[in-house]
Fold:
Amino acid sequence: MTNFAASIESTSMSKSPDSASFLSRNWWKMLGVCLVFYSIIMGFLGTVPRLPILHETIRNLYFHVTMWFSMIFILGASLVFSIRYLSNGRFEDDIKAEHYSHVGILLGMLGITTGSVWAHFTWGAWWVNDPKLNGAAISLLIYFAYIILRNSMDEEQKRARVAAVYNIFAFVLLIVFLVVYPRMNKVDSLHPGNGGNPAFSSYDLDKNMRMVFYPAVFGWIMTGLWIANISIRSSIVRYKQLRKQFSRPDSNPTHVI
Amino acid sequence: MSFKRILLLFALFLSSGLMAQNDVEMADTFRADGKIYVVVAILSIVFTGIVLFLIRLDRKISHIEKEQRKSEKE
Structure:
């Protein structure tokens, strides 16, 4: 895991990426893409249990649920960098926290859209008043507010600090609304894994589903980290360029903004 | 309850379970016709396209980072 963290660091921090070999820098991107390919192929061709109501839509588990799992992981990464920013004040950590949260929000939006389609064909409605669904919607709104909060402040350091603190609250609320609240006693939920409904245990009549689901989650986490990595690096390049332009004595900073 | 009766009950449970499984409608004919491979192929192509785009972006940004580092040294 330290090796993995180091390889992410080396590609995103642009310290000395030339020295590391191509494979050691990019293995996790390849692994992620391969795992997603595996989930696309086995997700359709693998055997699944025959369940009423769900029928073949059980295969959505490989695509809908993975979105949420990888969203929680990537928003967790965003939280880690927010905490790191608060402890050391490095601008790279603020940029990372911002872009990880963007990718996490994207995955969450995909998760809520795919879930809505799935609900339409199995529960009979695009949206049902369910604690799990409403919890997901509320936590997404909380993260939308994170973006709005960031964009509402011009002063860089103040924005970074306020956003980092908000991000900590946002992640805690995400866990509460998505994981804790739907599982509480006396909360009734249609969604599998909540309100007394079984999640995995009813599906694994054969072990085949787990063999596709877990690789799919890891694949999407890696792919999401890669997308975030690209936007983080572009942001850092732009930041350094701006800093250089502002530090030049003869420059006129107004034209860059 | 006699052993025979228990056996009968067990067999009944088993058969009802099997029937319930067979009753569930799945895309068996779709799979038998081989058309599902077409969906897999198309989804793979879509994802390949996205990955190629990401690779291109990655290389581009690496190039820019390299140039920036070079100009910083100067």
Remarks:
- Residues 46 and 70 of chain B are 37 Å apart (CA to CA).
- Chain B touches chain A at residues 20-27, 36-37, 39-40, 43-44, 47, 51, 54, 57-58, 61-62, 64-66, 68-69, 72 (CB under 8 Å).
- Confidence is low (pLDDT under 50) at residues 16-20 of chain B.
- The two ends of chain B are 93 Å apart (CA to CA).
